Automatic annotation (TrEMBL):
SUPFAM superfamilies: cAMP-binding domain-like (SSF51206), Winged helix' DNA-binding domain (SSF46785). The lineage of its organism: Bacteria, Bacillati, Cyanobacteriota, Cyanophyceae, Nodosilineales. InterPro entries: cNMP-bd_dom, cNMP-bd_dom_sf, Env_Response_Regulators, RmlC-like_jellyroll, WH-like_DNA-bd_sf, WH_DNA-bd_sf. This is cAMP-binding domain protein. Residues 12-131 form the Cyclic nucleotide-binding domain.
Length: 227
């Protein structure tokens, strides 16, 4: 991947020095995984930072026999950055939801890069604060109706990973269980609400491509409280 393409795809590197990006690409390792393959097991956290070149992954938490999806991440995002600074035991893993292409940079080299490039360091802090604010907003929604909470999840996914099309904004058709877990509602509620949004014409599903197109983006954002 060319440095310009890399910096455009990953907002983390928008302000990084060109030399920083070239060096990272020279030491990065490429990975490809099919759907439902484990990308990162719980005992591997802290070894590297991973950048999603294409595809979607789910971050899962294990609690006894239960598995809960904590987050769904798409193209242009990254994971593993917090674990390189935290050596506590992990009980999470990352699994491909679709075929994915990743780039990884070892923890040691990534930390060295942060110290060498203040702009990259600052941008990393900005994105981590942004994630914290999103988590706080979800916490504020905990007593809201399930429809509002689900609308927030869809709006957040569309803003972060959506691809514009003639019909609207396209994202992955996320399974109800994952969608429910991330939204903190029941799978039954998630299915019913999605059906209502489809009936209203706010969403459109393409089963062949396994995508959802958000047609009425303004109404969805209004329901989610993003306006």
């Amino acid at each position: 991947m060319q440095p310009d393409t890399f910096s455009e795809l990953f907002s983390l590197f928008n302000a990084a020095n060109p030399e920083t990006i070239e060096w990272l690409l020279s030491v990065a390792t490429e990975h490809e995984y099919p759907a439902e393959r484990a990308v990162l097991m719980e005992d591997a956290w802290g070894n590297a930072v991973y950048f999603i070149e294409s595809g979607w992954v789910r971050v899962r938490r294990h609690a006894n026999e239960d598995v809960v999806t904590l987050a769904v991440l798409g193209q242009g995002d990254f994971f593993g950055e917090m674990a390189i600074l935290d050596e506590s035991p992990r009980s999470t893993d990352v699994v491909a939801m679709t075929a994915v292409k990743l780039l990884s940079v070892s923890a040691q080299r990534f930390i060295q890069t942060l110290f060498k490039d203040p702009q990259l360091h600052h941008r990393m802090l900005q994105l981590m604060v942004q994630r914290l604010r999103q988590t706080n907003f979800r916490f504020q929604l905990r007593h809201q109706p399930p429809a509002v909470k689900l609308a927030n999840t869809l709006a957040t996914l569309q803003e972060a990973y959506g691809h514009p099309t003639e019909a609207g904004i396209e994202i992955l058709n996320i399974p109800s269980k994952d969608l429910a877990d991330v939204t903190d509602i029941s799978a039954d509620d998630a299915s019913k609400i999605m059906e209502k949004l489809l009936t209203k014409g706010w969403l459109q599903v393409d089963p062949d491509r396994n995508t959802i197109t958000i047609i009425n983006t303004k109404q969805l954002a209004h329901l989610a409280g993003h306006t």
